[in-house]
Structure to design on (130 residues):
């Protein structure tokens, strides 16, 4: 599956952005989807993930209550709504897709791990000014 992320930009602290990721390929609904981010000189970190049907979502603690991940399987898209943005949210954001064959148990215990996602978008840059 090929992924294309968009929606990044420059925003003031407290503002909002909505990232979108479109997928080309079959059976989009058979993939778990996630957003990761990488700030300058830092490792890529997990931000949020959503299960195949969208019934389960998980977030890193630092974005809980501010970010919302959603998916539209009919249109092969996943979105990340980011509200109350902070300067520390500045990073390149990547969408990722993984494992049609994963069990729910495996997903619940490994969703934050980059290694379970085999398809990555090109990244979209988010800059939050103070």
């Amino acid at each position: 599956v090929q992924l294309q992320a968009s929606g990044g930009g420059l925003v003031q602290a407290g503002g909002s952005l909505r990232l979108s990721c479109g997928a080309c390929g079959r059976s989009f609904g058979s993939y778990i989807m996630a957003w990761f981010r990488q700030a300058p000189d830092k490792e890529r970190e997990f931000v949020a993930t959503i299960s195949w049907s969208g019934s389960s979502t998980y977030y890193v603690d630092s974005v809980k209550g501010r970010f919302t991940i959603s998916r539209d399987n009919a249109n092969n898209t996943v979105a990340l709504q980011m509200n109350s943005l902070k300067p520390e949210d500045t990073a390149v954001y990547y969408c990722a897709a993984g494992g049609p064959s994963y069990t729910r148990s495996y997903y619940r215990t490994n969703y934050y791990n980059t290694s379970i996602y085999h398809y990555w978008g090109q990244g979209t840059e988010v800059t939050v000014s103070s």
Summary: The first helix runs from residue 104 to 110. The mean pLDDT is 96.
